[in-house]
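Appendix C reproduces, verbatim, an entry submitted by the partner laboratory led by Prof. M.T., so that reviewers can inspect both the input and the predicted structure.
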Amino acid sequence: MPPQMFAVLRSLRPFGESLMKPSRLVFALAMMLSACGQPSDTRAQDGGGLAEPTRRPPETQGDMQASFAPVVQVSAPAVVNISARTLVRQRDPFFEMFGGGAPRTRVAQSVGSGVIVRADGIVVTNNHVINGAQQILVTLNDRREFPAEIILQDSRSDLAVLRLETGGERLPVVAIGDENELQIGDLVLAIGNPFGIGQTVTSGIISALNRTGGEGAGAYIQTDAAINQGNSGGALVDMDGDLIGINSMILSPSGTSAGIGFAVPASMVRRVVESAAGGETAVVRPWLGVSAEAVTSEEARRLGLDRPRGVIVSDVYRNGPAARAGVRAGDVITAIGGVEIEDVASMNYRVGVARPGDTLQLTVFRDGRETTLRAEAEAPPGDPTPATVVLGGRNPFSGAQVADLSPALADQLGVDPVSGGVLLAGVSGRSYAAAAGFRRGDIIRSLNGQRVTSTRQLQQLLNQPQRAWEVTIVRDGREVTGRF
């Protein structure tokens, strides 16, 4: 056996003895050789657009070595340290008791990571790293420092885009890859600045894809590569050195890495960066215009599906993208753009990473067979920041501020954009509404058995004399009915 091959085989042991089985030896060797290929120099960026990822086979003896070093050499220079300073006002209860003591101000500093994705100084990081910051300093791996300004914040994906004041200097970049090509078990590297000790590289695999269930991007990449405090905003890269995700959070009882980390996928990163580079101040997410729920095992058997997959449509917004495409209540949407979806969060993610005007290819299961429909991606209608109305009179909502819940506002709040209702935008602290237990963010769905569709209709219903009031609201995704 050649000594180079022997070195490669020895390096496989830390990744699991199962790779050493004779039946998988050739496959494992081929995977390691392709994984350690050095990315092409052409991924460096000369223009103002995003760098395009490339692939090529190993060409030199150095490429053949079982090491992550070639990948790190390409991607690590584009991973930066971010220091954000925020002014925090502190109250002094002791002095306030005697009518004095103005609130004091202290400087809070957070440390995180970021990734340079354009050579003219465009950096993407987590929104929670820089949120509220008055001063941001970015330090490159070679210790150069640049002040930065925020050009876009997207709290839903927990991503933010910064612009560095480089004075025209070109910076190293990492290409944004395509997570649609990823598979569970692929090798990955996490690069960031844990605990502020300096740039650190950890390795692992992709543990899961399209991991949903929380807020934000909606379909995370899960990895067991060590991610700790300070890694937020750093890079998750594949074995081509391409950026496949931005490391965002961990699941851990101790607060340190327990082998369960999550990254915002590359498709959302690209969408947010392109929005910022195009001069937008917010990410405009398309919508489909349906209410849906994940398919259960019982529903799958009833519908004739081979297994539980996709989402079953319960309602379709009139004249929305789905309605114009021919989607009907009772249809099961199993895939979007050829990518299978498992729940509503993954459906919203696949639609949300499209650009307004794009054509969405919907795979729909209907009457025992699958068909393909095409919908045009468009922004949800309505005003995401509508005017509010203050309610008065003798009723449970007296003292509350309400606003019409348009699809645009519902989408921004992450609630069902089809079912409608009226949003409680604010509740006065000493009002009847506050005493009744209503909170900011509640959605009024019905009043005395009548569906509520607008603030005007709600005011008309409240002006009708009543001896008792029956109110149904939606809070934290659950319907609650109360009597007053």
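The two ends are 83 Å apart (CA to CA). Additional entries are available on request from the coordinating office.
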